[in-house]
Amino acid sequence: MLVGLPKEIKDNEYRVGLTPAGVRALTDAGHEGVVEHNAGEGSGFEIELYTRAGATLLDSADEVWAQGEMIVKVKEPIAPEYPRMREGQLLFTYLHLAPDAELTRQLLERKVTGVAYETITDRKGTLPLLTPMSEVAGRMAIQVGAQYLEKMSGGRGVLLGGVPGVPAARVVIIGGGVVGTNAAKMAVGLGARVTIIDNNLDRLRELDDIFLSRITTLASSAYAIHGAISEADLIVGAVLVPGAAAPLLVTREMLKDVPNGAVIVDVAVDQGGCIETTHPTTHSEPTFYVEGVLHYCVANMPGAVPRTSTFALTSATLPYALKLANKGFLEAVSSDVGLKAGVNTYAGKLTYEAVAQAQHLEYTPLDNMLGGTTAATAASSTASEAR
Ligand SMILES: NC(=O)c1ccc[n+]([C@@H]2O[C@H](COP(=O)([O-])OP(=O)(O)OC[C@H]3O[C@@H](n4cnc5c(N)ncnc54)[C@H](O)[C@@H]3O)[C@@H](O)[C@H]2O)c1
Predict the structure, then answer these.
(1) 318 lines ligand 1 (CB under 6 A)
(2) How far apart are alpha carbons 220 and 15 in whole angstroms?
(3) Do the Cβ atoms of 299 and 284 come closer than 8 Å?
(4) Active site residue 270
(5) Beta 287-290 vs 349-350: how paired, if at all?
(6) Number of CB atoms found within 10 A of residue 105's CB
(7) Active-site hit among 198, 233, 270, 336
(8) Which of 50, 157, 220, 372 qualifies as a FRET site for 292, CA 20 to 30 Å off?
(9) C-alpha distances in angstroms, 220 versus 83, 173, 175, 250, 297?
(10) CA 92, CA 313: separation in Å to the nearest integer?
(11) Closest ligand 1 atom to Cα of 301
(12) What is the pLDDT of residue 197?
C-alpha cells in the first residue's frame, strides 16, 4: 500500500502521524511511504530520518494526498485539506466528527473511508488510541501545576515537595483513571501529599494497591471534595463519564474556601471540565483567575510536548496502520472488531451511530455494507499482536 504522511496544518499542532521508525516498519513490510518534506519538523524529526527509513519525500501536501492510498495523520482534516481528500482514500487519524458537521459532509460526499483513532476499541472495551494522550496530559498536569504554583508564575509560592522541616504541598486529584493515575505518579515522585477522589470504589482499591500508603483515597461526594480542596495547593480535574459532559464537581462557592494562589489544572476541560469556573484556554493564553485561584484549562495539553506525544501516539497507532496496510481495509476490519469500531465513514455512508445521532443523519451499520463479511466474533487483537 502507498502510505502518505502530510504535515499537520492545524494551528499550533506540531505532532506528526508517523515517526521515522513507523515509516520504517511500513517499508520493511513491503509498503511505500510518501512524506511531505517538512512533516516531522515540529516533532524534531529531520528529513533524512524519513529518507533513511525508506520514504520518498514530496514537496507539497497536495502531492502526498494525491498519491497516498492511506493517509496517516494526527488531527482531523481542516478546510484547506478537504479538496485533497478523494474517493476510496483511507484516512487514519483523530476525526472527532460528532461536533463537526462540515467535515462529516466532506468525508461522505468525497466517499472517504474515515477510520477514527478515538473510536477504536480494545478487548477491554477501552479506547487504546486515547490512552497515550491521557498519560501525557496526566503527567503534564503536575509539571504545569508545579510551575504555576511558583510566585513568579502567579501561584502561592509553594514547592510541591516541600523541604526538610516544611510540609510538602497538598495535591488533590479528582478522577483516578488514566489522567489521574499518571498525575499521581508524578506528584508522589515529587514528594507531594496526594489525595485521589473517585466514585468507583474498585478503582480506589486498585490505586490503594498501586501506591500503598503514599496516597490518600477518598470516595467521591460533594462533602469529600469540598473538604479536600479547602486545603489544597494544586487541584487536578481528571474525571470522565464516557460519552457525556464531565460532571461539575467543584462549584464556584467551594472555591471561596480554596487557598488564594492555589492552582487548578482541569484536564477534563475538553469534555466541559469538572469545575464550574472552567473554560477552555490555549497554549498562548493558558490561565485565568477566579476567586483568587489560578486556573489552567488548556484543551490540548499534549500539544506542548509534541515529540513525546508523537512517540506515544504512534506506538499505539502503528499496529493498526500496519494491519490496514498489510491486509487492506476490508480484511483488516473483518478480522478485528475493535478496528472496525473505528470506521466512521465508508463509501459515502455514516457508519458510526453516535456521530449519526449527534448530527441527525442516517446511520448505516458497516456490517450491512460489507455483506456479512465481518466476523462478529473476531476479537480486537491488534495491540497485543504488536507487542
Ligand atoms: N486537556 C487535555 O489535553 C486532555 C488530554 C487527554 C485527556 N483529557 C481528558 O481528561 C479526562 C480524563 O481522561 P481519562 O483518560 O483519565 O479517563 P478515565 O476514564 O481513564 O478516568 C476517568 C475517571 O473519572 C472517574 N469519575 C467519573 N465520575 C466521577 C465522579 N463523579 N467523581 C469522581 N470520579 C469520577 C471514573 O471513575 C474514572 O476513574 C477526559 O475528559 C479526557 O478527555 C484531556
Answers:
(1) no
(2) 36
(3) no
(4) yes
(5) unpaired
(6) 13
(7) 270
(8) 220
(9) 48, 11, 9, 11, 22
(10) 13
(11) 3
(12) 98
Q: Is 144 in the pocket of ligand 1 (CB under 6 A)?
A: no
With a 6 Å cutoff on the Cβ, whether 200 touches ligand 1 is yes
**Average pLDDT, 10 consecutive residues per value, the chain (387 residues):** 96 93 98 97 96 98 98 96 98 92 97 96 92 97 98 98 98 98 98 98 97 96 98 97 83 98 95 92 94 95 94 97 98 97 97 92 95 48 44
Atom index in ligand 1 nearest the CA of residue 238 equals 12
- Which cell is 115 given? 477510520
What is the residue whose three cell numbers read 478523494?
A: 86
318 CA distance to ligand 1 middle (Å): 25
Sequence-ordered alpha helix ranges (H) in the chain? 20-28, 47-52, 61-67, 101-109, 131-149, 178-189, 201-211, 222-229, 252-255, 306-327, 329-334, 337-340, 353-359, 366-369, 382-386
Per-residue confidence (pLDDT) for residue 382, from 0 to 100: 55
Question: Contact, 314 vs 324, CB < 8 A?
Answer: no
- Considering the candidates 37, 62, 96, 226, report the single residue annotated as catalytic: 96
Report pLDDT digits (tens) over 297-306.
Answer: 998 899 899 9
Instruction: Indicate if ligand 1 lies below 6 Å from the C-beta of 153.
Output: no
pLDDT at residue number 332: 98
User: On the CB side of 344, how many CA atoms lie within 13 Å of its CA?
Assistant: 31
pTM: 0.89
